[in-house]
Design brief:
Length: 138
């Protein structure tokens, strides 16, 4: 199986709660290599650009307000089958429906405050990685 890169975020709720270190430790324990990482505080405009695909959805305003509410950690993760593996590590969007031991179950508190984000497809990963990292950084 070939190595793949994916994009991940430790969201503002988890950073504010002091859980970023625990989440990062779990990422490494799951076998991911962190190829890029940065603490950033998105502006509302940057959050809107990142989540532009959801612009017409009813939760867009709430999502972009939340994502610009405090610092978050953006990362490039690498592993065999990284996109699927990261999504499995996170668990479903709703922490209440996530399996025990997944990041969202252990660190999320609601659908909106679910601690982590991850790309859902190779095309999405390419866009999301390029939104936060220049080619030479990875």
């Amino acid at each position: 199986m070939s190595t793949e890169k994916t994009f991940a975020i430790i969201k503002p709720d988890a950073v504010k709660a002091g859980k970023a270190g625990q989440i990062l430790a779990r990422i490494e324990a799951a076998g991911f290599t962190v190829r890029g990482m940065r603490l950033t505080h998105l502006s509302k405009r940057e959050a809107e650009g990142f989540y532009a695909v959801h612009r017409e959805r009813p939760f867009f305003g709430e999502l972009t307000t939340f994502m610009s509410s405090g610092p978050c950690v953006v990362m490039c993760l690498e592993a065999p089958d990284a996109i699927r593996k990261w999504r499995d590590t996170m668990g479903p969007t709703d922490p209440a429906k996530a399996a025990p031991g997944t990041l969202r179950r252990d660190f999320g508190t609601s659908i909106g405050n679910n601690a982590t984000h991850g790309s859902d497809a190779p095309e999405t990963a390419a866009f999301e990685l390029s939104y936060f990292f220049r080619g030479m950084e990875l």
